[in-house]
Design a protein that fits this description.
- By secondary structure, the chain is mainly alpha-helical.
- The chain is 62% helix and 6% strand.
- It folds into two domains: 3-66, Winged helix-like DNA-binding domain superfamily/Winged helix DNA-binding domain (Arc Repressor Mutant, subunit A); 71-106, no CATH class.
- It is built from five helices and two strands, in the order αααββαα.
- A two-stranded antiparallel ribbon has the order 1-2.
- It is elongated, with a radius of gyration of 17 Å.
- The two termini are 21 Å apart.
- Keywords: DNA-binding, Transcription, Transcription regulation.
- Pfam families: GntR (PF00392).
- Residues 1-69 form the HTH gntR-type domain.
C-alpha cells in the first residue's frame, strides 16, 4: 500500500476514534514529512485526498484542520442522494442499490 494511503487511513482512523477532534490542526506538510522520514509530496498527497473527502480543510496560514463530522458528511450526503436518484431512475430496488453499494465498499 502506498505511503500516502497509509497516512490518509491513519488520519481517518484517528479522527473516527476521537484522537483528532474537529478543529485540531495537523502538522505542516514539511514538518510531518521530516518527522516520518518521507517525501513532502507523500504528506501533501495524503492531505489533498483527505481534503477532497472532507476529513480536513486547508485554511491558508491557519494550516490544515480536522473538520466537524457534519462538514465531512455533507458531500457524502449529496453523493448518496445522487446515487439513490440514479438507482431509482434505472429501476433498481432499494435492496439492489444497497447490494451494489456494499460491493463497491468491499463489504462481503
Amino acid at each position: 500500500m502506498p505511503l500516502f494511503e497509509q497516512l490518509r487511513l491513519q488520519v481517518i482512523h484517528l479522527v473516527d476514534n476521537g484522537a483528532l477532534v474537529p478543529g485540531t490542526r495537523l502538522p505542516a506538510v514539511r514538518a510531518l514529512a521530516e518527522h516520518l522520514d518521507v517525501a513532502p509530496h507523500t504528506v501533501a498527497r495524503a492531505y489533498k485526498e483527505l481534503e477532497a473527502a472532507g476529513i480536513v480543510a486547508t485554511r491558508g496560514r491557519n494550516g490544515t484542520v480536522v473538520c466537524a463530522r457534519d462538514e465531512r458528511l455533507g458531500g457524502l450526503s449529496a453523493a448518496a442522494a445522487a446515487y439513490a436518484a440514479e438507482a431509482k431512475a434505472q429501476g433498481a430496488s432499494f435492496a439492489e442499490a444497497v447490494k451494489l453499494l456494499a460491493a463497491a465498499y468491499d463489504v462481503p
